[in-house]
Amino acid sequence: MSWLDTIIQGILLGGLYALFAAGLSLVFGIMRLVNLAHGDLIVLAAFLVLLLVSALGLNPFAAAAVALPVMFALGWALQFLVLNRTLGNDILPPLLVTFGLSVVIQNGLLEGFSADSRRISVGALETASLKIGPVSIGAMPLLTFLSAVGVIVALNLVFYRTPLGRAFRATSDDSATAGLMGIRAERIFATATGLAMMVVTIAALYLGTRANFDPTMGPARLIYAFEAVIIGGLGSFWGTLAGGIIIGVAQTVGAAINPEWQILAGHIAFLLVLVVRPRGLFPRAVD
Amino acid sequence: MSDHLSPSWTISTRTGRSSASMLVILILVVLAIAAPLFVSRSVVQDLFFIMTMLVLTQCWNLLAGYAGLVSVGQQAFVGFGAYAMFAGVSLLGMDPMAAIMLGGLAALALSVPTAFFVFRLQGAYFAIGTWVIAEIVRLSLAQWKALGGGTGTSLPSGATRDMLGVRFVADLLGVRGPQATDIICYWLALLLAVVTIGSIYKLLRSKQGLGLAAVRDNREAARSVGVDPLLTKSFVYLVAALATGLTGALIYVQKARISPDAAFSVPDWTAYVIFIVVIGGIGTIEGPIIGVIVFYILRSLLADYGSWYLLILGLIGILIMLFAPRGLWGLFTDRTGFQLFPVRRILAGQPKTKDIRGSD
């Protein structure tokens, strides 16, 4: 059953795309900010993990745990010092500033790490697999998918079950009124971006361990992530997971037909969803 | 109430100083036409680069600065125009000059279905939507084996040497064939730049241009007085695609070699363009002109530093967007009030006191 195998691989790949997208979905849902540097921040985090692994000899998972607070601080500072200044009714400043940031990160990484392809080794886990009936599932893809589900569950818990999440939702709905209740929007936004960068770090761990990466691959990850967010519908984390899975399955099915069609098939699936449901499959927020 | 606007009032966009500077611009254009007579081949090539970037930046500025359409996918039209030109020359045996027109028309044709998709999207969605379309076009053309697939191809040898007018220019100026090709490409780029800037200026001073600015500043208010944003935006989008496609085709006649990665390059055709407009001043005709000059100087200074160049350009872009969002030209006009291409409507004239008394 090669088709069953193709679809399962696609679903697992979708987990990786959902991880790329979850941070974007969080930031976009709260402050309507599209961070065009999101993909490059994933690659930046992957280089940070790589650096920790090679310099300190850490296990990749431990290195990612060390990178988590670093990336949180980076995201917090980025939002508080730079991106908050761009928020407003005009869409130009956030788009152009984050586009500039994307180019700066990409070329900074090119200077620092050269254009060579890198990979973070996880030893025996790379080749380990589970055999379930006729299908064999790689350990890393499965771990990626489970992490994606874990991240989505965690984000939903934070968003709907904690005071922080209440502040997120309040600021998203009406930041002026939230301000009257003592919520400081600029700090809430900074915390949201910090959280998004923690998700980015988890995504970077799997980006770096599953395949080769290099400084220029950020924009393509941004596009996959954004497609997943739009397919899923604004403000729905589970929708984002569904969107990632749709892109993932479309890519593996496309690749099964002709290896050159892999990425094209994902983009075309996105366009088809857009034509049928312009607001995505599970829209929650209105915008 | 309308009686207060007695016939002696006139609405004008012209200012005294701008009329004087029009004369200066005219002289500059004449000098630019004559430039190949005085300067070396490499300078002509540099001028060609400046003119093509000027067209691309004016088009992007028209979209983002006036129509509120922030596209990150204009490379779709550069690449598609270039590929259509290559198809015309290599597969149909057309003259490169005719194939450039074909490239422009092909980009225009591509912009119709593209507009159908991306106009369903707003703001940031629109930006990424245009990018996805550009990726789809790039990946699709990489499958076109007759034009070299993913690795690309070159124009047939001699195609640009036999281009319309090359022999004439070569004999007239006493230069060799390849140099004559460069000169013709430069003149075409100059023509394209002048026509583009002239048309954009004319558009912005017209009723449609006023409507465009109104939609950009307040969509609901503009709609309430009967301005149809979709129609005007679609028109602008199609025209920008045509000019961008013509430029793409022209650039690749001069380069004579194409590959999907180069023709659809985000840094070359979108990142540079965005930074030029932002640094010069978004939402003005003068901004991209200043931006291209600054960009050219930076490029000459930093050419040997590879990726540092883009990094510095990105940093300047971010700083300008944060602290001087109207760019260098905005800083300049804030201090001097000078406008080269004034589009703001100014009420001029004297109220006739007699008329006002009569209407009251």
Task: Tell me about this structure.
The complex is a heterodimer of chains A (287) and B (360). Chain A is 74% helix and 3% strand. In chain A, a hairpin with a 2-residue loop joins strand 1 and strand 2 (135-138). Chain A has a two-stranded antiparallel sheet with strand order 1-2. The longest helix of chain A has 30 residues, at 2-31. Chain A has helices spanning 2-31, 38-56, 60-82, 92-113, 139-161, 163-173, 175-180, 185-210, 218-232, 237-257, 262-276, and strands spanning 129-132, 135-138. Chain A has one domain. In chain A, helix 2 crosses helix 3 (60-82), helix 3 packs antiparallel against helix 8 (185-210) and helix 9 (218-232) packs parallel to helix 11 (262-276). By secondary structure, chain A is mainly alpha-helical. With 360 residues, chain B is mainly α. Chain B has a single domain, classed as ABC transporter involved in vitamin B12 uptake, BtuC, CATH 1.10.3470. Chain B is built from 16 helices and four strands. In chain B, helix 3 packs across helix 10 and helix 12 runs parallel beside helix 15 (327-336). The longest helix of chain B has 29 residues, at 177-205. The N and C termini of chain B lie close together (9 Å). Residues 355-360 of chain B have low confidence and may be disordered. The chains are: A mainly alpha (287), B mainly alpha (360). Chain A: It is found in: Cell membrane. Chain A: The chain crosses the membrane at residues 6-29, 41-58, 64-83, 95-115, 135-159, 188-208, 228-249, 261-278. Chain A: GO terms for molecular function: transmembrane transporter activity. Chain A: This is Branched-chain amino acid ABC transporter permease.
